[in-house]
Amino acid sequence: MNKIFLATIFIIMMSIETLAQQMIPKQKGFEISYSVFPQSPEKQNYALGAGVISYTRNGNYLFGLAEYSRKYYEYALYDIPIDTFLFNGGYSLYLWGDLMRNVNINLGIGGSLGYEQVNRGNEMIYDGSILNSAENFIYGANGKLSLESYLTEQLVFLVNGQLRYLQNSELGQFHALFGFGLRFNF
Question: Label partner for 79 (CA 20 to 30 A): which of 14, 98, 99, 178?
């Protein structure tokens, strides 16, 4: 069902044409996004993000995004929540776009810095087991491939895939995310 919905949104995005100037150097934008971890178990594992971007030349832009994510680790009959608070900053390169630049593909690279909390900071699990670590500072690098489509002169619909390398994370070093969002350029 989700694939049909995303395919329909993609077809609609491809048919919309805007004639405004887009991706002007020093133009700013505010972005919100929702992402999921691929192959998540039945529990809802998600990431919510918000941040700002600043266009440079040729459709490239700098970005700074704050993100909260929740992922569950399955342990016996109990799901242990792992909350992550991350700041992602970096640079996104314009790879391809149609002639009017209504649909664009960008590749972003950057760094991540944040804080991870396991089981809401409680070291003891319900069955009496004790976690080795309940809280960590995490850091690493990220890469993002995004499809960006202008819905109006200032509103951009985003679909992206991300791969992250996070040191000190209890979930492992590599994390993949797939998501969508909206950006308002001003």
Answer: 178
